[in-house]
Design goal:
This protein has 17 helices and 17 strands. It has helices spanning about 5-10, 30-35, 40-45, 70-80, 85-90, 95-100, 110-120, 140-150, 160-175, 225-240, 255-265, 355-365, 370-380, 385-395, 420-425, 435-440, 445-455; strands at about 55, 190-195, 205-210, 215, 255, 270-275, 280-290, 295-300, 305, 310-315, 320, 325, 480-490, 500-505, 510-515, 520, 530-535. Helices cover about 30% and strands about 20% of the residues. By secondary structure, it is of the alpha+beta class. The N and C termini lie far apart (about 60 Å). Strands 1, 4, 8, 12, 13, 14, 15, 16 and 17 form a 9-stranded mixed sheet that branches. The protein has a 4-stranded antiparallel sheet with strand order 3-2-7-6, with no helix packed on it. A two-stranded parallel ribbon has the order 5-11. α13 (about 370-380) crosses α14 (about 385-395).
């Protein structure tokens, strides 16, 4: 590093007088954002036009942005308002610290407890100084390093998707909660998928666990379509003249959240479905419901999509979100009287996969399992790579997109023989031989997938080897389908790789905005522009 003893003189040559410069509360990145987009979701979500009253004390502690770490800050603010998380980490923090190893930098529970104490104690929630009305906040440098360790995205300083980080964090919590209370159980629920053969009318029910309910944006249910069309027409007219429309005249499409829920639960047609009842391909009808309702329900709006030129974009929409939500009509009830299940598959026609198409899709960066599904679902139409790509774009947000493809010609496995080398590797992680064998069986002897499976299915490890499907509901809490809104996380920017996150949390009947280290009473909570919502069961 070279020091310039005449820095002031040299800068004055360019008209820069450093002695007259004043410190601001905003970083240069924030100032640049304000300059480039003064009017729009940035100001609305951050309530920039309001004179916000700063808050201090326990539960009102800010988190310092370590460089594009706002996605972590927003998620952690919300999670530590949940009683299960406070009980797990804050209430027993002294015991966690007492039993901690000498090197706490790599101890997940210690870092979570330290984070919880920092946010909930109020020790770091006081005005920074007389000139700056905002607080010092906590700096979770060690936590960020630990949770991102070894991850190709979260280990970097780039902006990330808050939803993806939340699910990554949940997997770490499950991994470090074996034999103890797992606070993520307050979010876990079970999805029920029903598929009915169009020719035989026989049905099949499948179940999977989820932590978040992703909802499509029902753009066909826009309530202000005429106003939006008029705005777009005016915008195009001005752009043809080389002018730009006034940002204050922006008209966003308005979509009710209930319409998004209806679209999620609506039936969809599945082409080329192999029916075991007629032993041939048929058209089937698929529907999705919830078989359990969690204590807290995370709802993610799928605002991020792909343009026609395959570039990512964010849907700039306003979603009407109710303070109270009744999801009772979405409850699934399993096999009903009069319904007949599809028979178990015994033998099917051999199906060949075009591995060249699969490789082309994989080379584009998509998950291999999703690529195989895309080729399988589209190869009968003869559409080639374009049809397969369209299928990927349509289904890449499906929860099971990256799960292994089960072809109709695959027969149920007989006596399973675990790979001894794989068993040895998994046992070296501290698991028993039976647990290692169960993980390898569930992943067809794939050691890498088995390691992921064993950490995300901790509750099943000590269960009987063949667990009846009827007992699966016991893994998830259940109750009423009526909820109230208690928090939401908002994203500002054009895609998940850029922008900024803030969150709003309902405390003592009032909304509070958490914008990194800035915590204040919210005057106009922008519920309609949020990305992730948290509902609490009433």
């Amino acid at each position: 590093m070279v020091e310039d003893p005449y820095l002031s003189k040299h800068l004055s040559h360019f008209g820069i007088n450093i002695t007259s410069l004043e410190k601001t509360e905003k970083t240069m990145a924030e100032l640049e954002i304000d300059l480039n987009q003064k009017i729009g979701e940035w100001d609305v979500i951050q309530e920039a036009g309001s004179s916000l009253t700063p808050l201090y004390g326990p539960g009102y502690t800010g988190i310092i942005n370590l460089g594009n770490s706002c996605y972590i800050n927003s998620v952690m603010h919300v999670l530590f308002t949940i009683k299960d998380f406070r009980n797990k980490y804050a209430d027993v923090a002294e015991q966690i610290f007492k039993n901690a190893p000498s090197d706490v930098t790599n101890n997940f529970n210690v870092q979570m407890a330290k984070f919880a104490c920092g946010l909930l104690s109020g020790n770091y929630s006081s005005p920074n100084d007389q000139e700056c009305k905002y607080q010092q906040g906590v700096r979770p440098q060690m936590f960020k390093s630990l949770v991102g360790k070894g991850h190709p995205e979260f280990a970097t300083k780039r902006q990330q998707d808050a939803q993806e980080f939340m699910l990554h964090l949940f997997s770490l919590i499950e991994r470090n909660s074996r034999g103890t209370i797992n606070p993520t159980g307050s979010f876990k629920f079970q999805i029920e998928e029903r598929i009915q053969c169009g020719q035989s009318s026989k049905v099949k029910y499948t179940y999977r666990d989820e932590f978040m309910l992703p909802l499509p944006i029902a753009l066909d249910k826009v309530t202000n379509r005429s106003e939006v069309e008029q705005y777009e027409a005016n915008k195009l007219e001005l752009e043809s003249k080389g002018e730009r429309i006034d940002a204050k005249l922006l008209v966003r499409p308005c979509v009710p959240l209930l319409a998004c829920l209806e679209q999620f639960a609506s039936s969809e047609t599945v082409e080329d479905f192999y029916s075991t009842a007629i032993k041939a391909k048929s058209v089937a009808i698929k529907s999705t419901k919830l078989s359990t309702f969690p204590d807290y329900l995370f709802i993610q709006l799928r605002k991020f999509t792909i343009n026609a030129d395959w570039t990512p974009k964010k849907l700039d929409v306003s979603v009407s979100v109710p303070d109270e939500l009744d999801l009772t009509q979405l409850r699934g009830h399993g096999l009903q009287p009069g319904e007949e299940e599809l028979p178990e598959d015994q033998s099917q026609e051999e199906i060949h996969m075009d591995e060249n198409l699969v490789k082309q899709l994989c080379d584009m960066g998509f998950a291999p399992n999703g690529c195989r599904k895309a080729v399988y679902q589209t190869q009968s139409s003869g559409g080639g790579i374009e049809a397969a790509m369209n299928w990927v774009m349509e289904h890449m947000d499906d929860p099971d997109f990256s799960t292994p493809l089960v072809l109709p010609n695959q027969k149920p496995p007989g006596d399973f023989v675990a790979n001894e080398e794989g068993i040895g590797l998994i046992m070296s992680m501290g698991f028993t031989r039976e647990q290692a064998s169960k993980a390898l069986k569930a992943t067809e002897n794939n050691v890498e997938r088995a390691a992921d499976w064993i950490f995300s299915h901790a509750a099943e490890l000590d269960a009987p080897r063949e667990e009846p499907a009827a007992t699966q509901d016991a893994k998830c809490r259940d109750g009423s389908g009526k909820y109230r809104l208690v928090a939401f996380i908002s994203h500002m920017g054009t895609s998940t790789s850029v922008g900024h996150y803030v969150c709003h949390i309902l405390k003592d009947g009032k909304w509070v905005i958490y914008n990194d280290e800035k915590v204040a009473l919210s005057e106009h909570p922008p519920k309609d522009l949020a990305y992730i919502y948290l509902y609490e069961r009433i």
